[in-house]
Amino acid sequence: MSRRLGYFRLNSLRSRLMLLVALAILPLAVMTVVSGMREREHAIKASEENLRRLTGMAAANEAQSVEGARQILVDLASVPDLLKDTARCTSLLSDVLDRNEGFVNFGLIQLNGDVTCSAVPLLHPVNLGDRSHFRRAISERRFIAGDYVFGRVIKKHTINLTYPVIDRSGKVLAVVFAAMDLEGLDTYINDINLPAGSVLTTYDARGGVISRRPDPERHLGAKVSAAMKDALANAGQRAVTIRGEDGVERLHTFVRVGPQTLTDYTVTIGIPTETIISAARHDQVMSLLALAATTLLAMVAAWLVGDVLIVKRVRKLMGTAERIAAGDLEARSGIDYGNEEIGNLAQALDRMASALQKKETARSLAERELRAADQRKDEFLAMLAHELRNPLAPISTGAHLLKLLHSDNVQITQTCSIIVRQVDHMTGLVDDLLDVSRVTRGLVSLSTQVLDLKRVVDDAAEQIRPLITARRHRVVIDLPPLPCHVKGDHKRLVQVVANLLGNATKYTPEGGAIDLRLAADGHDYVLTVADDGIGMEPALVERVFDLFTQAERTPDRSQGGLGLGLALVKSLVELHGGAVHAASPGPGKGSTFTVRLPRHTQDVVLAPQPAARDGQDDGAPLRILLVDDNVDAVHTLQLFLRSAGHRVEVAYSAGDALELAKTLVPEVCLLDIGLPDFDGNELSRRLRTLPQAAGATLIAMTGYGRQQDRETAMAAGFDHYLVKPVNTTQLSDILAAAAEANIKR
């Protein structure tokens, strides 16, 4: 049974052969269906045109009857005796009623609404002051065809047609009306021949039925359905299909009865859609049956012939291919190569197996060589990082020694602090490089113990505090009141938190906000570091923990790194059995990094770590404005210039520099190009427009050394262009020339 079912699977060869047959017949099937749909559309369109013609005819007949009533009322309004004597008025209206079939009453309405004259005797006083057609005839001073009413005088289904009686001065004296029998109105459309099941209906302005065929008595005065109401709102547009209250779906067209000045009535005729498309459907069904029979015969032929001519030989090819896929590259098909498709396929399969056998040998050799090269790369990277640390040690020691020997000299002490800080920064980069090398080679081992994550956060915050202070960030640290115990390596976890905080400070502008929160979540502790910095694109969020991945550099961001910090965070967190996640709403909207670490029930006490910071300045003869957002760089250059006897004022942004220049009146301006608000080229242009700095010597200090950068700076108004690190001898010569030029002025 299962074997028989296998014959019918779509992944079998015979099934695909049958599919080809089906695809060959598909255009014919599509054409059959499309032809049937076109026939159906054509039938509907033809019926729609005929239906619109019939509806227009019915509307014209009804408009003719209403126009006749209007003419009668116009004539009556011009009769002088109509308002003089009630008896003569009644006699006149009775005579008019007798001579006009289809009307059930004529009458005269005074301005207060009282009917004072009626062709039908009044059994009791009648007031029609509340009728809208009466009020409209007075206010609009024209013929009004009213909505459906049940007559108060004659007690029948009617529509009241009114016309104002106006004297020569233009004053409305009364209103003459005619009550038209709705059953009489229906007689005007009896000559409209409609298919069985069709409905012809006339609606007044409020959606009340004033004429219907068939069954007029049962529907007169009934309100329009919701679907019909929507269609009436768009009357005059194309035909619409509506399901009636009897459950029959009909195609309706709508035509207004006469012009807008005559009536507000609408005529609609609905023909059952089943009547319209029945013939087209019958032809389409017969075509589809013939197509199905043809398809079935073709597939049976494909099924029987395919097994004899193709399937058995292809199965042998399948077996050979499966052996090759299993790794037996020596497998061959064993089929005779003939001048036909399956023989050619067998020959190609055997050649492929031979070629794969050769390529597999070459691939194995290349893989071994690649692994050896990768290992050599890791060893070289580790050796390079190790060797880079060697010259850093004497530099750091020499700086500390110089500070110790000259502790009474403030400038030397400050310079030594800067050297130590920069050496520490470079040492951190080298440490990251070494850590990445160890992680990639699997050489990192953890010294785990039970510790308090709150102490880890405190130590990391203390470690990163100088950078936070330098960039004036607002940092909020939210820690729970109770200890948060985890099992891990204290030094490595401090490195994780410090790297996250350091990353936040690098990519958050000065004065920005950083939030660090620690909270329990189920069986984990969750550490979140959020900032309002430059944010990340979605593509960067996905790869932010990859090695050497960084956000786009901008001229105002001197703090960078090697793109190793977050990669180390991910590796170290995973070594602790945790997970790290990055998120950002988009560029300019900040970033959030979340670390989850498993909770532990024991306790631990951690030791604190210290941090230090320094700085100082003096005054001198040349007034120099120094502008740079790198705190250490600007302080070092400030000390150098002050040691030469100059008066130096410092600004960390272009905006502050402009304000400072107004009070300092500088003779020399040393400007960095990459500034946080706008660049040094724009600052140079603005300084040239200030009276206090128009004659100053402008010197550019930048890390951009291309010729086009130099030309841009000189065009912006700079006198000199120096590439960092600045050559102090060259700078001294420029300052000497500036001082000499000031003396000659």
UniProtKB/TrEMBL annotation:
Coiled coil segments of this chain: 349-376
Protein location: Cell inner membrane
Catalytic activities: ATP + protein L-histidine = ADP + protein N-phospho-L-histidine
Start and end residues of each Histidine kinase domain: 383-601
Molecular-function GO term, any one: phosphorelay sensor kinase activity
UniProt entry keywords in alphabetical sequence: Coiled coil, Kinase, Membrane, Phosphoprotein, Transferase, Transmembrane, Transmembrane helix
One Pfam family, short name: Response_reg
GO CC terms, sorted: plasma membrane
Domain HAMP, residue spans: 308-361
Membrane topology classification: Multi-pass membrane protein
Residue(s) carrying 4-aspartylphosphate: D672
Domain Response regulatory: 623-739
Protein name: histidine kinase
The species this protein was found in: Massilia forsythiae
